[in-house]
């Protein structure tokens, strides 16, 4: 039988070329964005979207690999922000050292949280993720000696006051892009490792993965800590740029759900899915905010959009595009599997029979 | 085969007074079973006789309420499934469970006997593992599908993939839950041949199966379950003539 | 803390615990029939409270009368929601995707409430709002007693329904062992829909009770869903008695801690208990085998 994997058709080569070109074009566009932006406001919108993308990519370490949906990742970005600010203000650390220090601290803190929430299956994990944001919101609002309470906290800018605002935006835009690239590189490396294979197996069928010898709890905990670390970095970076922190916005269920929506919309199983999702959702968010102001209606829009994605496109935009390409692939029918009509009938019969077998006590 | 020859074990899987109940139902009710090392053991019994629950207790998917499971003399009662897998017991699932949205080759690379953290962090392009995976895929006859997603291959091919995936962990003992379930006769024959070959290499098998032809032609030792405990055991011929077995099956 | 203050805190805690218990029973039902963590439960709770408030403002009648409409309405909404939305999700990813879907529903309800009724805080004023009873020297507001009575009657009714009727039997069978229930000829899909309807009906009753003595605003539901989810985990996912016991214990703890710590810090007791439970006994304290797997 011919090996489908080793023969690359002309169609595949063309596809690879188009993909490469699109990637290069997108990269150039991103890098040139600060020069292309007409004014400081547009530039600042770019920073916000980059920040969303960094958060979504960080979220996707857990969501994409293990399929565990965290609705409370705002806890880690918020802690990253507060940690950075407090290390600068209280300990007098260098801002960049504070950023990394705070992310490391959040990673350490994620250990007991992950320990508590990952030993059993999904439901407890989701519950803890939401509970964590709610508890942190309560604490940060009440514990005003440290967090500034509802008045918030001012974060000193890492670049001197003499650096003008557009210049600030530009630098932070590139810093955010750098962070995204690093996070993507780590995601890519995990994706190709045996560790990543084990994680994906957990996402597909956790019992089966464990029966094949994957230490599922240790794997989940490790990737959870990595995710918390990067989320905290993204949160701290945002805090350094924005210059002030308010508990309501730092520990917000909404911010957590943005991360989920962005990753899901883009496609959690693909490397660039969260970035694409962040650009789409982030742009729409900022557009609606500037066009219609902050109304209650954005909640409705967010809710409906999330529901639509969950119901009709749970695999995201990028995989949907991929299957669209597959549909126009000229040699598709024969290259993937050789199956005759008779075999197909046979297969269907098999599946039906298998379904009829009542499953014994196992769940 | 590049896989290592499993050393002949003196003792294999044994359970003592294993119990598990759900609510008021005693799914496994004091089962004491000794599987024969190096042989093909079959576990049969009418529907609802607790075979799958017993299976799940032995492989750590369910914690038994009481009793003991030992493997090669070591206590593995209630251990996590991945520890039992690491001890050398591999298993398949009823109704075939594979990782649908991963490629056939990736499916193969999930299961590997642990060799420390460093090994796991190394790239999955690890040549040894890939070579071993391809070898096993070739052995079960689905190597041409290695880059297809597992959900796109036929049910029979998925069954073969599951078996090959279990072999990646180099298990000395392999537990199969209904390997012939929902599979066409030609494939049943192929699976039977594979089991016999693997057994000849020194691997112990424990097979839960409803297909009596397969059980009788394949197994060396048959354990009959009814109401959560073994009621008879012996060679296929012995078991077939046992009145208790007929009673359990036919309810006479 | 003086004796009467202590007594008052305990009584208030028990009264609050009753409401928690009813709502947690609803959450447990959803989880039982479909393994769904229903984030929108408390959003429906607040919706019911708004409907009670709106009903009282428009008609001048007692808000309790709104139950006549909201309970059947919510039952139907719950049934339809399960049949049309949640049943569409793929079983393999049901737990996670249902969380997202119900989360999306919660956001939508919160947004719509804010849009229709504005973000202003609302409160029902009744003739008996200010009156209170003296119980062993402790002052207990009448509205709180009514709210508790409502919750207690509803819980009792739910218990009777589950234990004494054929429908309840089918529901319990579906919760304990869906495959076996199906083999016995129970239409588990329909039963799951009814389970959702019942769960949402508890939110209607709870919301009306809540509206009697609470100030309500659209984002209030976040203050409820956290504690409620903590309760069902501590009780053991899927166990209604477990949820009720945990609700009572935590209600009293919260009420007692409020005196020295204030309301905000007292609320953290739920989360601390949640983390402690997951550390020590991840399957919860009263849960059966369901809880071990989730």
From TrEMBL, chain A:
It is a multi-pass membrane protein. It comes from the Bacteria. It is found in: Cell membrane. InterPro entries: ABC_transp_permease, LivM-like. Keywords: Cell membrane, Membrane, Transmembrane, Transmembrane helix. One of its GO terms (cellular component) is plasma membrane. CDD domains: TM_PBP1_LivM_like. The chain crosses the membrane at residues 12-34, 40-62, 74-93, 99-118, 125-143, 172-190, 217-241, 271-288, 300-322. This is Branched-chain amino acid transport system permease protein.
UniProtKB/TrEMBL annotation, chain B:
The keyword Lipoprotein does not apply. Keywords: ATP-binding, Nucleotide-binding, Transport. GO terms for cellular component: plasma membrane. GO terms for molecular function: ATP binding; ATP hydrolysis activity. It comes from the Bacteria. Pfam families: ABC_tran, BCA_ABC_TP_C. The keyword ATP-binding applies. SUPFAM superfamilies: P-loop containing nucleoside triphosphate hydrolases. This is Branched-chain amino acid transport system ATP-binding protein/branched-chain amino acid transport system permease protein.
From TrEMBL, chain C:
Keywords: Amino-acid transport, Cell membrane, Membrane, Transmembrane, Transmembrane helix, Transport. Transmembrane segments: none annotated. It comes from the Bacteria. The keyword rRNA-binding does not apply. It is a multi-pass membrane protein. GO terms for molecular function: transmembrane transporter activity. This is Branched-chain amino acid transport system permease protein. It is found in: Cell membrane. GO terms for cellular component: plasma membrane. GO terms for biological process: amino acid transport. Belongs to the binding-protein-dependent transport system permease family. LivHM subfamily.
């Amino acid at each position: 039988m011919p090996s489908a994997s080793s023969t690359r058709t002309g169609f595949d080569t063309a596809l690879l070329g188009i993909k490469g070109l699109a990637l290069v074009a997108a990269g150039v566009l991103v890098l040139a964005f600060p020069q292309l932006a007409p004014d400081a406001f547009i530039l600042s919108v770019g920073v916000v979207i980059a920040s969303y993308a960094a958060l979504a990519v960080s979220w996707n370490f857990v969501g994409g690999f293990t399929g565990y949906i965290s609705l409370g990742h705002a806890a880690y970005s918020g802690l990253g922000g507060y940690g950075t600010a407090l290390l600068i203000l209280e300990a007098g650390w260098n801002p960049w050292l504070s950023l990394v220090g705070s992310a490391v601290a959040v990673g350490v803190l994620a250990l007991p949280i992950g320990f508590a929430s990952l030993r059993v299956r999904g439901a407890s994990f989701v519950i803890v993720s939401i509970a964590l944001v709610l508890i942190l919101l309560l604490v940060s609002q009440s514990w005003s000696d440290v967090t500034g309470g509802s008045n918030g906290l001012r974060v000193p800018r890492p670049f001197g006051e003499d650096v003008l605002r557009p210049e600030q935006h530009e630098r932070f835009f590139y810093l955010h892009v750098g962070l995204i690239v690093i996070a993507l590189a780590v995601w890519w490396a995990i994706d190709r490792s045996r560790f990543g294979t084990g994680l994906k197996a957990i996402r597909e069928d956790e019992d089966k993965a464990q029966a094949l010898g994957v230490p599922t709890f240790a794997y989940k905990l490790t990737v959870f800590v990595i995710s918390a670390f990067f989320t905290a970095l993204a949160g701290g970076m945002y805090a350094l740029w924005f210059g002030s922190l308010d508990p309501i916005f730092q520990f917000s269920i909404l911010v957590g759900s943005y991360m989920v929506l962005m990753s899901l919309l883009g496609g959690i199983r693909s490397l660039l899915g969260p970035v694409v999702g962040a650009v789409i959702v982030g742009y729409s968010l900022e557009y609606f905010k500037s066009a219609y102001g902050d109304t209650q209606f954005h909640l409705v829009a967010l809710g409906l959009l999330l529901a639509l994605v969950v119901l009709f496109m749970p695999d995201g935009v990028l995989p949907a595009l991929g299957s669209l390409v597959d549909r126009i692939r000229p040699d598709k029918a024969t290259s993937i599997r050789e199956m005759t009509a008779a075999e197909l009938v046979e297969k269907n019969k098999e599946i039906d029979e298998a379904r009829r077998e009542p499953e014994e006590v196992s769940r | 085969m590049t896989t290592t020859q499993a050393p002949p074990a003196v003792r294999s899987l044994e359970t003592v007074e294993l119990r598990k109940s759900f609510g008021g139902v005693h799914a496994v009710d004091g089962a004491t079973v000794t599987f024969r090392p190096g042989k093909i053991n079959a576990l049969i019994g009418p529907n609802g006789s607790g075979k799958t629950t017993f299976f799940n207790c032995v492989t750590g998917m369910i914690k038994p309420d009481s009793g003991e499971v030992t493997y090669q003399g070591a206590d593995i009662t209630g251990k996590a499934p991945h520890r039992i897998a690491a001890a050398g017991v591999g298993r398949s699932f009823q109704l075939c469970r594979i990782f649908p949205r991963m490629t056939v080759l990736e499916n193969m690379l999930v299961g590997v006997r642990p060799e420390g953290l460093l090994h796991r962090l190394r790239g999955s392009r690890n040549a040894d593992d890939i070579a071993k995976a391809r070898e096993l895929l070739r052995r079960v006859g689905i190597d041409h599908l290695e880059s297809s997603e597992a959900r796109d291959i036929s049910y029979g091919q998925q069954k073969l993939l599951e078996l090959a995936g279990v072999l990646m962990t180099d298990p000395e003992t392999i537990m199969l839950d209904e390997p012939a379930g929902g599979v066409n006769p030609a494939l049943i024959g192929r699976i039977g041949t594979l089991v016999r070959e693997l057994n000849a290499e020194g691997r112990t098998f424990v097979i839960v199966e409803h297909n009596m032809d397969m059980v009788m032609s394949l197994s060396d030792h048959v354990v009959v379950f009814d109401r959560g405990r073994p009621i008879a055991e012996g060679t296929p011929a012995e078991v077939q003539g046992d009145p208790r077995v007929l009673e359990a099956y036919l309810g006479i | 803390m003086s004796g009467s203050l202590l007594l008052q805190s305990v009584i208030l805690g028990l009264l609050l615990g009753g409401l928690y218990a009813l709502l947690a029973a609803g959450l447990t039902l959803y989880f039982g029939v479909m393994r769904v963590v229903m984030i929108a439960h408390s959003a429906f709770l607040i919706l019911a409270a708004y409907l009670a408030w709106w009903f009282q403002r428009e008609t001048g009648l007692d808000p309790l009368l709104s139950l006549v409409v909201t309970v059947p309405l919510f039952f139907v909404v719950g049934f339809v929601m399960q049949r049309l939305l949640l049943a569409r999700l793929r079983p393999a990813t049901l737990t996670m995707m249902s969380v997202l879907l119900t989360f999306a529903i919660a956001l939508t309800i919160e947004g719509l409430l804010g849009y229709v009724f504005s973000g202003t805080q609302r409160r029902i004023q009744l003739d008996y709002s200010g009156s209170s009873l003296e119980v062993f020297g402790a002052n207990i507001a009448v509205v709180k007693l009514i709210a508790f009575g409502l919750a207690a009657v509803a819980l009792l009714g739910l218990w009777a329904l589950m234990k004494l009727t054929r429908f309840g039997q089918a529901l319990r069978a579906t919760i304990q062992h869906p495959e076996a229930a199906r083999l016995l000829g129970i239409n588990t899909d329909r039963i799951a829909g009814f389970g959702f309807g019942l769960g949402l009906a508890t939110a209607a009753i709870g919301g009306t009770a809540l509206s009697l003595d609470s100030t309500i605003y659209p984002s209030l539901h976040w203050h409820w869903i956290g504690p409620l989810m903590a309760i069902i985990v501590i009780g053991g996912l899927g166990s209604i008695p477990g949820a009720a016991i945990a609700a009572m214990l935590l209600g009293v703890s919260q009420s007692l801690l409020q005196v020295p710590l204030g309301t905000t810090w007292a609320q953290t007791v739920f989360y601390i208990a949640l983390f402690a439970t997951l550390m020590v006994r991840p399957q919860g304290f009263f849960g059966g085998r369901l809880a071990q797997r989730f």
